[in-house]
From TrEMBL:
Similarity comment text for this entry: Belongs to the Nudix hydrolase family.
One protein family per Pfam: NUDIX
PANTHER family the record matches: ADP-RIBOSE PYROPHOSPHATASE (PTHR43736), DIHYDRONEOPTERIN TRIPHOSPHATE DIPHOSPHATASE (PTHR43736:SF1)
PROSITE patterns noted in UniProt: NUDIX, NUDIX_BOX
Keywords: Hydrolase
UniProt xrefs under Gene3D superfamilies: Nucleoside Triphosphate Pyrophosphohydrolase
Stated name of the protein: ADP-ribose pyrophosphatase YjhB (NUDIX family)
Annotated source species: Streptosporangium brasiliense
Nudix hydrolase domain: residues covered: 1-112
Amino acid sequence: MLLIRRGRPPSEGLWSIPGGRVEPGESDAEAVAREVLEETGLTVTAGRLAGTVDRPGPGGLVYEIRDYLAEVSGGTLSAGDDAAEARWFSDEELRRLPLAPGLLEALTGWAVIAPRSGSSATT
C-alpha cells in the first residue's frame, strides 16, 4: 500500500493515505489523481470507493473523507507537497507504523487489508 508520512498538521509525522481537498468543480476521481501526483509523484487512475469516514477538524468542523483504490500508470515515487516521505508498504509493515488515527481500523473494516491472523475485522 502506498502511504505518505505527513509533513504538516493534521497528523504531522504520522503515516497516512495520500489525499486532500476536492477543489470546486473537481470530481473525486480528478482530486484523487491530482493529490496523489502532488504528494507522491505518481500518476494514478482512481478506482472504486474503498470507504468513507468522518474526522473532526479545527473549530468543530467535520471532514467527510472518501478513500478510493487507485492504479498507478506512471511517474516516479518521491515525496512532494505536504508529504515528508512516500513509500510502499506490505500489510504487515503498515501495521508497525505510527499511523494517522483510525487508519488501520478503517482499512481493515473496508477489507482493503486483511485483519491480523487470529483476529477479525468489524464494520
